[in-house]
Each structure stands twice: as C-alpha cells, then as structure tokens.
Amino acid sequence: MAFEAPPYLPPQVLPHAPMHQFSVAFGELQVGGLPLTQLAARVGQTPFYAYDRTLLRERVAALRHALPRSIQLHYALKANPMPALVGLMATLVDGIDVASGGELKTALDAGASPQAVSFAGPGKRDAELRQAVAAGVLVNIESEREVQILERHCDALALSARVAVRVNPDFELKGSGMKMGGGSKPFGVDVERVPQLLQHIQRAGLDFEGFHLYAGSQNLHAQAICEAQQQSYALALRLAEHAHAPVRTLNLGGGFGIPYFPGEERLDLAPIGANLAQLAERAVHELPGAALVLELGRYLVGEAGIYVTRVLDRKVSRGQVFLVCDGGLHQHLAASGHFGQVLRKNYPVAIGNRMDAGATEVASLVGPLCTPLDLLADHMALAVAEPGDLAVVFQSGAYGASASPQQFLGHPPCVEVLV
Ligand SMILES: *Cc1c(COP(=O)(O)O)cnc(C)c1O
Q1: Is residue 407 exposed (0-12), middle (13-18) or buried (19+ Cβ within 10 Å)?
Q2: pLDDT of 296-330, one tens digit each?
Q3: Which atom of ligand 1 lies closest to the CA of 212?
C-alpha cells in the first residue's frame, strides 16, 4: 500500500502587508544600516533578535506628527523590555508604563523619570507597591486592597502615593486581538464601584491624579479605536464628578495594532488623530489641566524588530519542504501561533539573504524542538533556501524573546541587539 500525500492546496490567498520598513540592497535585507549577513557576523551567533534604532525613532516621530501635540505618548514596557531599547524609548516618549516590580526597575535603570512612570497590573504584590511609593511613580489602582496597602506604606515611609484609578469600563474595544476591558475582567475596578473607591482613596490620603482605561490590544480598525477613546473620555468625565481632586492625567489606553497576518493592513492614523484633536480640545474646558495619555506597546516597537534564525537543514518529506532552523517556538512563541492566537496564521517571513530571488517554492520553516508545535512558517512561498541561509521573521519587535519559553528543551537563549 503506497502512501500518497494529499494534494496540496495553498491556504493563503491574501498577501501580507509589505514589510517596506526594511530596505533591500544587493539581495540582502538591511538592518540598522548593515546587510543581514554582516549583522549576523557582528552578533556572532544565531538566532537573534535585532531592533532598528532608526525605525524606532521614525515610528515615534510619525505618530507625533499624526496626533495632536498635547497628547502624551507612553511606552508599555511589556512589549519589549530589552534594556538598551527601553533606554532609547525613554528618550523618545513622554512616559513608560510598567506592570511589575521588575519592569519598574528596568524603566528606572533606563533613565525614565519616576514622574513619567506608571504602574498597572492586577495582583501587585505588597513589596511592589512599597517600591512604587518609594520610587514616586504613579500607581494605577486595580482594587480596594491596593488602596489599603498603599496607605500603610505611605505611613511607614512618610511619603505620599501618586495614584490613578484603573477603570474596567462598561464597553469593549470592538475587533481587538485581546480584550482587556468590559464585562467581567480581572483588570481594573468596575466602573460602578469607582465612586466608592474614590472616597476610600480620599480617606486614605492618597494623592489622586486621574484615571486609566485600557479596553484592548492589537486593533487595526481606526473607527473602533476612536469609538473606544470617545467612550473612555465620556466615562472619565462622569467619574471626575466623584473625585475630590482634579483629574491631572487621563490615560485613554492604546490598542493600536500592527499587521501580522495575511490580509491585514496598517492602521490608518488620520481618523485617530482627528478624533483625539476633538477630545483634546474638549478636555481644555471640561478637564482643565488634565494630560491625555496614550499607552502603546507593539505599535511603537513591533515593526522595528526582526527575528533571525539560520537554516540548519533542508528536508523534503513526501513532497513537503521543511527548512529546519536553529530558532523556533522557544524563542518566538508568538510566531509559532501559541501566544493568544485562536487560529494559527503565518507571520511575514523571508529568506533575508536571498531577497531578490523572489518566491520560488512553498516551504515550511520549523525549529529544532521535538514537537509539531515548533513551526515558524507553514506552507509559505519563500526563496529556495539552503543550510546556512538566514530566515527572518518580521514584526518581531514586540512580544518576542521575553514572551517565549526559552528554557523549553534546553536550547541556548537568544541574543538581542539594538542596531
Ligand atoms: C499589554 C498592555 C499594553 C500594551 O499593549 P500593546 O498591544 O503592546 O500595545 C498597554 N497597556 C496595558 C495596560 C497593557 O496591559
């Protein structure tokens, strides 16, 4: 009985958004001004992540150009906590948002001013809240318990605590990759309970500065983002009536997505800029003295980074080409499809030292792990690659190394470079 492979039908008809942020010269992807093979030699090993400084700067500049001047931009550090990158981001944005004591240390080490650091996250530990008070950063309060703990630390340290209330709104960010507000959530305090919490904050003597709303992540629909921003603003306006002190900061969240998968297109910033201009205009009268803040992670850093892995072996199994690489799921969980995706789809991938070859065969890029989950590209049109070639996963500047199970299967950790 002969084995017959099923006829192959390409699952993807739609193309990926073009990865034009990186240029190509002499057939090689250029990263941080270097041809990819030279960069790989400079790094000294594969796999590695590379983040391009120029692209990071350009991204922040483009965003500032599209948004009203008064909007403050914060970087959500969990997207990429590489110290050198955070150091650069700290010079480009108006603030850093952290979500743990460890991230707080990274932000302060990177030179962020405590005045411009805010700390959100459910389940902040007693010791982390103490660190936050001592550091003088803004704590986004997510429960009654945090108020009590902060009050105790303020007394013990003879310091005041800067706080904002993270609100779990009564609406959602439609069409988000990840919903983090609306309905029942572990994040923030349900909007209907906020007035009572504000009284508690006043009694505890904490220094109230405003509100934080975060509806969701990875959204490519400008209209949905505008709607959520309007609803967040209206909600904050209502809640401000219950506050004993003026709102000085209103964090409207973020959620700006980047195109990862076939058929996705880049977010249109123009309507978002226009919408925020209206809100900023209203805030001058309705919330005088309040800064409007956006907190963005992947939108700022995701497109500036690539993951580079070397092809170790080329195998053909019953007609299917497998490029076996030294990198995989353990270093890039998201590209394998196991970081919150429902259906596995391919990230944009290319053979970075054969950019002029065009797409000449259908191949699957797999890692060295002994599990079928270790898949970086499934049946993708790629340049014909040989052992030694460098495969590149684009859109890898966020939720890469730090969001991957690097210990899994005992392979060495990857290197990260800022170029
Ligand atoms: C994760 C997170 C972010 C960043 O999300 P991105 O999708 O990377 O922009 C921002 N704010 C909060 C509260 C978060 O939890």
Answers
A1: exposed
A2: 999 999 999 999 999 999 999 999 999 999 999 99
A3: 13
- Could you tell me if the CB of 188 is within 6 A of ligand 1? no
Ligand 1 pocket test: which of 117, 139, 213, 214 has the largest number of ligand atoms within 8 Å of its C-beta? 214
Alpha helices in 67-185 (DSSP H): 83-92, 101-109, 126-135, 144-157
Structure token pair of residue 17: 């958004």
Question: Alpha-carbon distance 347 to 88, whole Å?
Answer: 26
Which residue has the CA at smallest separation from atom 4 of ligand 1?
A: 297
Reading the block at residue 252, the tokens are 């409207």
- Nearest atom (ligand 1) to Cα of 180: 15
**Cα–Cα distance measured from residue 248 to residue 162, given in angstroms and rounded to the nearest whole number:** 11
User: Longest Cα pair distance anywhere in the chain, in angstroms?
Assistant: 81
Q: Which two tokens stand for residue 395?
A: 């859109």
Nearest-angstrom CA–CA distance, 198 and 212: 13
What percentage of the chain exceeds 70 in pLDDT?
Answer: 97
Please work out whether the CB of residue 260 comes within 6 Å of at least one atom of ligand 1.
no
The three-state (H, E, C) secondary structure of 220-257, written as one string: CCHHHHHHHHHHHHHHHHHHHCCCCCCCCEEECCCCEC
Return d(Cα 87, Cα 147) in angstroms, integer: 31
Q: Which atom of ligand 1 is nearest to the CA of 254?
A: 9
HSE toward the beta carbon, residue 294, CA cutoff 13 A = 29
Would you say the CB of residue 297 lies under 6 angstroms from ligand 1?
Answer: yes
CB atoms within 10 A of CB 342: 7
Does pTM surpass 0.90? yes
Q: Which domains does the chain carry? A: 24-51+303-418 (2.40.37.10), 120-296 (3.20.20.10)
* pLDDT per residue as tens digits for the range 102-135: 999 999 999 999 999 999 999 999 999 999 999 9
Report which secondary-structure segment, H or E, holds 300: helix 298-301
Token digits of residue 308 = 């580079």
Q: Give every CB contact of residue 84 below 8 A, 6+ residues apart in sequence.
A: 418
Which atom in ligand 1 lies closest to the alpha carbon of residue 120?
13
331 vs 401: CA distance, rounded Å: 5
